[in-house]
Specification:
Elements: E1 2-4, H1 6-17, H2 23-29, H3 34-46, E2 66-74, H4 79-89, E3 95-100, E4 107-113, H5 116-126, E5 133-140, E6 158-160
Antiparallel strand pairs: 1-6, 2-4, 2-5, 3-4
Helix pairs in contact: 2-3
Amino acid sequence: MRKLDRTDIGILNALQENARITNADLARSVNLSPTPCFNRVKAMEELGLIRDQVTLLDADLLGLHVNVFIHVSLEKQNELALQQFEGAIADRPEVMECYLMAGDPDYLIRVLVPTIQSLERFMMDFLTKVPGVANIRSSFALKQVRYKTALPLPANGINLGG
């Protein structure tokens, strides 16, 4: 078992805010010298706490204007049906998120496409043809009020279980 202290939390928060921060600036922001800061980051990467560093793009500027939440119910909820559905959507670039839900529906997916016609093609040419899909309901996002990728971390630290 390992505990993340306030300094570790500060490092993680700074990296969530700006993954491109230099080690020197990161170290300065958490009052460490560069080598111990680098070692802490490396240790957290080895633990799997830091999975990836990504660049967030502006969907609207890139012409992806239609943000839709789609509720999908399956005919059966057995392991094979769930695996088939998850496998079918795993490589679809327009599927931004997919969650297996408790209750109804079975899945909630978020799809991002340029136009309503693109959404129609996704639904008619793909989603309705996935084996085992029984029901599809869509909700369109009119406005994104809040979007964040940073996880809420407690300032006083976290005990990691092993």
